[in-house]
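Continuing the series of single-chain predictions for the mutant panel. This is the parent chain; the variants come on the following pages.
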Amino acid sequence: MSAQSASETTRHIPILLEPITDFLAEGIRLLPEHSEPGVILDCTLGGGGHSARLLEKLASIPGARNHRLIGVDRDLDAISRNRSRFQKELEDGVMELHHCAFSESMKIIGNRPLYGVLADLGISSDQIDSETRGFSFRFDAPLDMRMNQSRGIPLTEWLEGVSETDLADVIWRYGEERFSRKIARRIVDLRSRGQMPKTTADLADAIRSVFPPGMRHQGIHPATRTFQALRIEINEELKELETLILKGFPKTAPGGRIAILSFHSLEDRLVKEEFRKRNLYELPFKKPLQAGDSEIELNSRSRSAKLRLAIRKPSEPETPSSMR
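Parent structure:
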């Protein structure tokens, strides 16, 4: 690792750090001695915590330097921070960084064998703690919510054009918010009167106003689920994961390892259904791994995380009947 500390580059605390990096490093350790040089893909580089720990473990494995760790992120801020954090590793050629969505990363890998895949889904602490990006209502910021601010449209523009029905459906599907229709109706009503929320505070207040008075100051903030749903929609997060499953998982080499950390039931369901294909994957654990009490106490955001691990099986040889 380079001399610059993680605290100088990121506020993100990596979740289930040791189980993920142990699993991926062991995959490299078990490769045959003369394996073709390949890559491990960190699809969601974020603060770089998982990649940093993985590089430390790979350094002790003979022959691991023949392989390369590729970190991708569609957040340019994350790429900039990690170019500084991993300056030495980049210069030594053991790592690459690319500014792109992980659905686009297969082009970067090219024909190199893919020996490991890591995806830490959802939002990073650096993004949600930003006072300007609009991910959190803790800061009064413009309603943007794009992970890649050079693509797509900000949330304000999307809200200007979405129908009440579609808005309600998004809030329910991705936020499981039982007041989704009332929230959508309120936002569209404000829009029709020229009072569309323009900041996170405006939107949070509009959402709060549809809740019964007794629920407005109890438990989680009334806007929490809606903000999550809108972020997932704006960034097409489910579509990104579906593309990774369809294009990335099949590219994984026999014996290659896949680690997916999810925070939403829809994400976890997609991964679970894919890993159920027993002819394609070996599962080290039947159930997802979750953070223990000590980790949750240190990082409350780990509470909802589910980690699913899989090892890609060798392709089964075609039988005469399947070749007809």
